[in-house]
Design brief:
heterodimer; A: about 850 residues; alpha/beta; MetI-like fold; D-Maltodextrin-Binding Protein, domain 2; 5 domains; 3-stranded antiparallel β-sheet; 20 strands; flat; B: about 375 residues; Rossmann fold; CBS domain Like; 6-stranded mixed β-sheet; 4-stranded antiparallel β-sheet; about 40% helix; cell membrane (chain A); transmembrane (chain A); membrane (chain A); MetI-like_sf (chain A); amine transmembrane transporter activity (chain A)
């Protein structure tokens, strides 16, 4: 029979298109990614709970109260799974694809309904779109558009188009002919016949089509995760390929929640959108009688208001956040936020090293993006420059085909491991089997079975066709092909039962770290020579990123290191790769600096580098400031500081019990007297770093003639007779009453108690408008750094004597951390320094304290060495 | 001058329609054409409708009457022939102008009402006005008026599916009346209603017609309905009009035996009037008698025969038939009445529509007459 392969032509055609129609693909790419990015910016930008609220309001509007509540719970669940971002990415993909699909499908359906010839032409095309396995166009999609959003979207659009077209055509055709005739008989133009009669009547069917489109889009978007489309699909794909059942189930449930939400909402949309649907709903409600409230749904206007309010809140929070996204810049910040795209094949060593690099690059201030891909798409995207580098190129054999095809568009960034080897292994408790030759005649012992991996794997081919023959094991042993994960579970089972077993393995593999295995020698060299693992970058990567390239080129892992890292990741499982890497790095102190030495010299390590320090603080401004400052310093010195926020009571208790190592904000002898008295025997007073503190009233410095409390007398008109206070429960407020009496101000001024933050905003407002104001403040406080406030003198000493702020530590701190103790003992901060540090942290916003402190530290060169000197 | 005039209308479905018309004109049989895959739905139909007349087209299903109706407003384009409305050739108009004519001058009432389920009763009634581009306020006003005319006051806010069949058709009627079109096409409009309601609707249509004086083309397969409503009736068979005339013409002088068999079951006593069976020769005698006795019962020419039975049951005397002015124009006696009811309708070839068209039939009809 002659052979016929149209596939070759298709391949040629794809090549041709790639070279000649690049602009078209660029255009499509721009449109699709633009649409996706736009939607994702909206969905992904907000606070999850607020967005969940918006979804809930929509559900309430469309389906009633119960649906609203369930939707909210569902979305919160997704957030609890920590899959919120992925879910929103998926939702954005679905919406982007659905919008484009509907824009194309509905008009096409209408056209087909009106013209038989169009209908006849469209039908086979739809059949192809619907039945052609998605991978078939997913892969050329990758050729044209590289990995990521676009091919996923494209595949999704193609896959979800048919029901949209079909249902539209059906819906229009289904409209009673007599009605269309009636419309025509009254002189309706074809256009209006469509808009006034056919379309509204077909709408329920069209909406069913839209529903199908969205559901198919969702299912396809998940599959598109294979082509690197972001979102839940990527997670599911990762979970499936890495046999992480937990992650798989969680992402699966998230997909189901999204699916149910989309299905129910688009299903119910019909009721709101089409006149017939509204009519049916009204009828149903009327039938319900007294149970009507169960079906209560807010009007469109009400629902819209709800959505808008929530959206504004979400948007506002987002806006407030965006001001403070500046990256902390330390001297280890080599990347300065530069983005690097990494890809990896879900092979154990690929996962391990990719996440290792991700963690290290993040520590060095880069923004690495990690994407799991199959080998083909990975190399394609490297060749196209979409991916910057990958760490798991097996050369010269395994990945030879890709290297041959794309080698000219990539560059090797050094080999970091090698040689690899293929082998058969047995548990070490199987005595007397050290080499392949030893297997002969022991078939009975192993049940005549060699546990293999995927039958498509190259190793299996070599094993069956060469190794068994060379050692004469054919007939005696049968190679059972299954999968890598089944092989591993078989191995695990056997080891638990201490049964003999022969498995097909390769090095490096984490199994060697997890189990005590013997690699069987291959004296005849039948398995062939091993390969080396290379880092491979896109063309020009080394030129664009000389530092990273030099790190990569100098990167090397020993088998023990690699397998222990793999094992750690394997043990952590399900989405915790990076955490596992962090733990592993903790066990290998100094590894990061060796792997990615910061230019300009290594960080000076403290003597106790690697030691974990537990720091506690309670949310007072100077406590937050100094704690995060020390966290940064200690990290630079190689310590592992941990920071925990506690209330003063529990904090002192924890210190006394030795659970905490030190805290920086002990106000002594007055404010924290009670704690100190209670625990002083079990605490160490490291020393005071600031003082004295003081309480005071303050006014802006443009208020002339008021420098002391005495000057306030008779000027109440100027200040509206008002002193802006803080929380009425604060000790200072109590003392203030006495102060006012002492100076005879108690009749003239009224103290308005509010809160510290309102006091500060009152100051802010007054300073902006240049109005006089008296505020209740204390030192140290950042209000003095931010606003031109002057403290009013207290000649009579009514405020009493100030405290000093001490560092207190657990008992024995001196012995445990001699170096740190020395630093803290000499720790001193001026009011200006502290004020500016607090102000920096204040303007950096919540959750960014550490970065803000780092920023401050960087802007005060020499400070670190002054505070934590090392020789 | 007639308002509506159909001239030699043909409608042929299928391939090579034009050739089919030529062959039909040359005398080819309809069945022969059907064997070749073309269907001649309407063949050489011509008629005129006067202003204010109800013109009924009657025929069994498949006789081509609905097709004929749809050619009158251009929903179907005639394969050959012309439709003249107020002297304007509708078949020559471009699509846009034809739509204008349909929107303003011709409206239609459908067999299964064809109400838009996604519009309220009021919106349905206002549909034609919406197409005309009448502003909302005015069209609501006029639609409300039309609904009132059709007897649906107070149902404006209801939905079609909440109404009974009869009421739905009233909405259909109101929709047609609201546009103020002069020509009303009614396609088996009452056929889907049950008999009592159908009768009500017929009465209402006649009642409305007295004041509105529309020109109406009414399609039906029900001879009694045709007789009741039609000022003139066209009987269709196999795509051809076989007879056009008043109800009486058709009853008394059926043009073919087909028509004759059709009218067999008609209650002749309700259709035939005293005027149609009176003895005009005795008019003078009657006049003399009337003047002399002053007692003899009188009836008008329009009185249906059914109403003569009661007087004859009590008196043997002939009855005097007078015209509208009261002038005696003839007499009816018992024998004449019984004879008229007993009479087999005589097929009258002269009454057949353009004799040239149905030559074969004419000869056959002649045979029937000979037998009669």
């Amino acid at each position: 029979m002659p052979e016929f392969h149209p596939g070759n032509w298709v391949e040629d055609a794809v090549d041709w298109l790639q070279t000649h129609l690049g602009w078209l693909f660029d255009f499509i790419n721009t449109v699709l990614t633009g649409l996706y990015d736009g939607i994702n910016a909206v969905l992904g930008g907000g606070e999850p709970l607020l967005l969940a609220g918006i979804f809930a309001v929509i559900a309430f509007w469309l389906r009633g109260l119960a649906a609203g509540v369930i939707a909210f719970v569902g979305f919160v669940l997704i957030d609890l799974f920590q899959l919120w971002d992925e879910a929103m990415q998926t939702l954005s993909l679905v919406l982007a694809a659905a919008v484009i699909t509907i824009v194309i499908a509905v008009p096409t359906g209408i056209w087909a309904a009106r013209k038989k010839s169009v209908s006849a032409a469209v039908r086979p095309v739809l059949d192809v779109m619907q039945t052609m396995p998605a991978f078939v166009y997913l892969i050329p999609g990758v050729m044209f558009f590289s990995v990521g959003t676009t091919p996923g979207l494209l595949a999704t659009i193609i896959f979800s188009m048919p029901p949209g077209v079909r249902m539209t055509e059906l819906g229009i055709r289904q409209v009673d002919g007599e009605l269309v005739e009636a419309a025509e008989a009254f002189g309706t133009s074809p256009k209006h016949t469509l808009t006034r009669v056919q379309f509204p009547l077909a709408l329920p069917t069209i909406m069913a089509g839209v529903n199908q489109v969205i559901m198919l889009a969702l299912s396809m978007v998940v599959i598109a995760g294979m082509a690197g489309a972001p979102g839940l699909g990527e997670r599911v794909y990762a979970a499936v390929t890495q046999v992480q059942i937990g992650l798989g189930v969680e992402s699966g449930v998230a997909v189901v929640i999204l699916a149910m939400y989309l299905d129910r909402m688009t299903g119910a949309l019909n009721v709101r959108v089409s006149p017939l649907g509204r009519r049916a709903a009204a009828k149903a409600t009327a039938m319900m009688g007294r149970m009507r409230f169960v079906r209560y749904k807010p009007g469109s206007a009400v629902a819209l208001c709800g959505v808008v309010v929530l959206a504004l809140v979400a948007g506002g929070m987002n806006f407030a956040d965006s001001g403070s996204k500046e990256q902390a810049s330390g001297s280890t910040n080599v990347g300065k936020g530069k983005q690097l795209n990494m890809g990896y094949i879900p092979w154990d060593e690929g996962i391990a090293t990719s996440y290792l690099w991700k963690e290290v690059l993040e520590q060095r201030g880069f923004k690495p993006n990690l994407k799991q891909l199959d080998a083909g798409p990975l190399y394609t995207s490297l060749a196209q420059g979409e991916t910057d580098f990958q760490t798991d190129a097996w050369l010269p054999t395994t990945h030879q085909q890709y290297w041959d095809k794309y080698g000219s568009k990539m560059e090797k960034l050094g080999s970091w491991y090698g040689p690899t080897s293929l082998e058969l292994s047995v548990p070490s408790y199987v005595k007397g089997v050290k080499s392949l030759a030893d297997l002969k005649g022991k078939g009975k012992k192993f049940d005549g079975k060699i546990i293999g991996i995927e039958s498509s794997a190259g190793e299996m081919k070599i094993l069956k066709e060469k190794v068994l023959k060379d050692y004469g094991l054919e007939g005696e042993y049968k190679v059972v092909s299954s999968s890598t994960s089944s092989m591993l579970s078989e191995l695990k089972r056997s080891i638990q039962k201490k049964e003999p077993v022969v498995v097909t393995l390769w090095s490096p593999h984490w199994a060697y770290n997890a189990y005590d295995l013997t690699k069987l020698d291959d004296p005849k060299g039948s398995f062939g020579k091993g390969e080396k693992l290379y880092n491979v970058g896109r063309k020009g990567f080394a030129k664009d990123n000389p530092v990273v390239a030099s790190w990569l080129k100098n990167f090397h892992l020993k088998e023990k290191q690699l397998t222990s890292l793999e094992d750690k990741i394997q043990g952590a499982g399900k989405g915790q790769e990076q955490k596992a890497v962090k733990e592993w790095l903790k066990d290998h102190p100094g590894f990061v600096d060796k792997m990615a030495p910061a230019p300009g010299g290594e960080k000076k390590q403290g003597k106790d580098a690697g030691k974990a320090v537990q720091m506690g603080y309670f949310p007072w401004d100077e406590a937050i400031a100094t704690t995060y400052l020390w966290q940064n310093i200690l990290e630079d010195r190689g310590y592992k500081p941990n920071v925990k926020q506690l209330d003063p009571g529990p904090l002192y208790t924890a210190l006394a019990q030795g659970q905490m190592d030190f805290q920086t904000d002990a106000w002594l002898p007055t404010t924290h007297e009670q704690y100190w008295r209670k625990y002083k025997d079990r605490l160490t007073d490291v020393g005071s770093w600031h003082g004295p503190t003081s309480l005071e009233l303050s006014v802006p410095d443009y208020v002339k003639g008021v420098d002391s409390l005495e000057d306030l007398k008779g000027k109440s008109d100027m200040f509206g007779g008002k002193i802006t206070g803080i929380e009425s429960s604060a000790g200072e407020m109590k003392i203030l009453k006495k102060v006012l009496k002492d100076y005879g101000l108690d009749k003239e001024y009224k103290v308005v108690s509010s809160s510290t933050s309102s006091m500060i905003s009152e100051v802010d407002r007054s300073v902006k408008q240049k109005k006089p104001v008296v505020a209740t403040t204390w030192s140290p406080h950042w209000v003095y750094s931010k606003y031109p406030m002057k403290k009013l003198d207290d000649p009579k000493g009514s405020w009493g004597k100030g405290d000093h702020i001490h560092v207190t530590a657990k008992k024995g701190f001196e012995k445990d951390f001699p170096e740190l103790y020395g630093w803290l003992k000499d720790f001193h901060m001026s009011e200006d320094d502290l004020g500016s540090l607090e102000a920096t942290i204040q303007s950096g916003g919540k959750g960014k304290e550490k970065e803000s402190a780092r920023k401050w530290l960087d802007s005060h060169p020499g400070m670190e060495d002054k505070l934590a000197p090392v020789k | 001058m007639s308002r509506l005039r159909a001239e030699h209308l043909y409608k042929v479905f299928g391939r090579r329609a034009d050739q089919a018309v030529a062959r039909l004109e040359a005398g080819t049989d309809r069945e022969e054409l059907r064997a070749q895959g073309t269907t001649a739905a309407v063949i050489d139909s011509s008629f005129e409708v006067e202003e204010g007349q109800i013109f009924v087209v009657m025929g069994l299903s498949g006789s081509g009457k609905s097709t004929l109706l749809r050619m009158l407003n251009g929903l179907l384009e005639p394969t050959a022939g012309r439709v003249l409305f107020d002297g304007e050739d509708l078949t020559a108009l471009p699509a846009r102008e034809l739509r204008e004519v349909r929107a303003h001058k011709i409206s239609m009432v459908f067999q299964h009402f064809a109400l838009f389920p996604h519009r309220s009763v009021l919106e349905n009634a206002a549909y034609g006005l919406e197409v005309q581009g009448v502003p909302r306020e005015e069209r609501d006003k006029r639609a409300t008026e039309a609904l009132e005319l059709a007897g649906l006051k107070g149902w404006e806010a209801s939905w079609p599916d909440e109404l009974s069949g009869g009421m739905q058709q009233r909405v259909g009627l109101a929709r047609a009346l609201a546009t103020d079109a002069d020509l009303l096409l009614m396609d088996e409009s009452f056929s889907a209603l049950d008999p009592l309601i159908r009768r009500d609707m017929q009465d209402q249509l006649l009642q409305l017609q007295k004041t509105l004086k529309k020109t109406i083309v009414f399609i039906t397969h029900d001879l009694n309905e045709a007789m009741r409503l039609g000022d003139r009736i066209a009987v269709m068979r196999d795509g051809r009009i076989v007879q056009i005339g008043t109800a009486e013409d058709i009853l008394v002088r059926p043009a073919t035996d087909y028509v004759a068999s059709f009218i067999q079951d008609v209650d002749r006593s309700r259709v035939l009037t005293a005027g149609s069976i009176m003895d005009e020769d005795k008019a003078d005698a009657a006049a003399a008698q009337g003047r002399g006795l002053g007692k003899a019962p009188t009836v008008t020419t329009e009185t249906p025969l059914a109403e003569l039975f009661t007087p004859f049951s009590t008196s043997e005397d002939a009855m005097i038939v007078t015209d509208d002015a009261g002038t005696p124009v003839g007499v009816v006696d018992r024998e004449r009445l019984l004879a008229a009811l007993a009479e087999e309708p005589r097929v009258d070839a002269a009454a057949a529509v353009p004799a040239g068209v149905a030559t074969e039939k004419t000869s056959k009809d002649a045979g029937v007459r000979a037998r009669a």
